[in-house]
Amino acid sequence: MEQALVVGVDGSDASLRALDWAVDEAVRRGVDLRVVCGSSWEWYEGHEPSFDINRRVVQKFADRMVDRAVERAMRRTVAVKVTGQVAPADPAAALITESRRAGAVIVGNRGRGELAGLLVGSVSLAVAAHAECPVIVVRGTEQSRNGAFGRVVVGVDEAKDAAPALEFAFRAAKRRDAHLLAVHAWRCPAHELPDHPIAEDAVESHRLRAQGELTQALRNMGDAHHDPAVRGEVVEGRARTALLDAAKTADLLVVGARRRKGHVGMQLGPVNHAVLHHATCPVAIVPHA
After folding, report:
1. Total structural domains within the chain
2. pLDDT number for residue 116
3. Cα–Cα distance between 14 and 140 in angstroms, integer?
4. Which parts of the sequence belong to the UspA domain (predicted)?
5. Based on the domain organization, do 212 and 268 belong to the same domain?
6. Of 92, 124, 139, the domain-final residue
7. What is the CATH number of the domain that holds 75?
8. φ, ψ for residue 114 (rounded to 5)?
9. In terms of domains, do 127 and 148 share one?
């Protein structure tokens, strides 16, 4: 049986969109949904620690926020069990802790009090970087959030590390009765130099190497590789550009995140950051096993 989903709420419009998306995802998976709010008075609303903040008032506000979120979720569906929890920690820490016993953690792309120029809030980035389960940052257009395109896109880097993201994306596509597009980007350095003669054999070798990497990654999926709804595509150029282009007509973009030795938790690479900040659909960050 799959583990419950966790969604973080803070009263912002973005967190309410994430809540609605999480409810629909819980229905698709047939699992419970836990609504979580981190109530740390030191973090709340972005204020610095202050003895002027009334902790009891903050606690009551958080309790009311979670109650309203649970009510909203239950109005959206009666098909899943929805519970609420106020955690005595800052929001990122609370959700990272919850990730140890969750099938996925779902957050909005921005929270309360975020600076206007931020495309992704600090809490969302922290959770995506350090959670122990997949994290979905709900962003993008209403079309994509409502599943209008019937397509899930997954980025494939190296075949040996691709299995967790591919498996997550394949299951997401099956739940939605959607097509799955696996994208692998490749680059030929000589192609990027102006007025430089390009040997076609060299370009073709880069393309064939990329095709081989993607083919192997898909083969590692076993029988799922033969599903007619699964398609692979190699694209010349930067990975971030290829994925952002594909995300324009996707309901979900899935990318893996490599764990780096010597660092606590999971660190996000430049491609992860790019899609979290700019994708026009919800983004799932799946840690490598």
Report:
1. 2
2. 43
3. 11
4. 4-139, 149-287
5. yes
6. 139
7. 3.40.50.620
8. -70, 150
9. no
Same domain, 51 and 11: yes
The mean of the pLDDT values for the chain is: 87
269 and 164 within one domain = yes
Range of the domain at 168: 144-287
Give the tens place of pLDDT for each residue, 10-33. Answer: 988 999 999 999 999 999 999 999
Judge if 256 and 132 occupy the same domain: no
Contact call for residues 248 and 278 (beta carbons, < 8 A) = no
Read off the pLDDT band of 57 (50, 70, 90): confident
Instruction: State the Cα–Cα distance between residues 239 and 270, nearest whole angstrom.
Output: 10
Provide the pLDDT for residue 30.
Answer: 97
Specify whether the CB–CB gap between 136 and 284 falls below 8 A: yes
What residues are paired with 85 via a beta bridge? 36
Q: What does the pLDDT look like over 185-235, one tens digit per residue?
A: 998 765 555 555 555 666 788 788 989 999 999 999 998 888 999 999 999
If asked whether residues 97 and 22 sit together in one domain, one would say: yes
121: amino acid identity, one letter: G
Task: Report, in angstroms and rounded to the nearest whole number, the Rg of the chain calculated over CA atoms.
Answer: 20
| 5-8: strand order across its sheet | 82-87, 33-38, 5-8, 104-108, 135-138, 283-287, 252-257, 151-155, 179-186, 230-236
Q: Could you tell me if 103 and 197 lie in one domain?
A: no
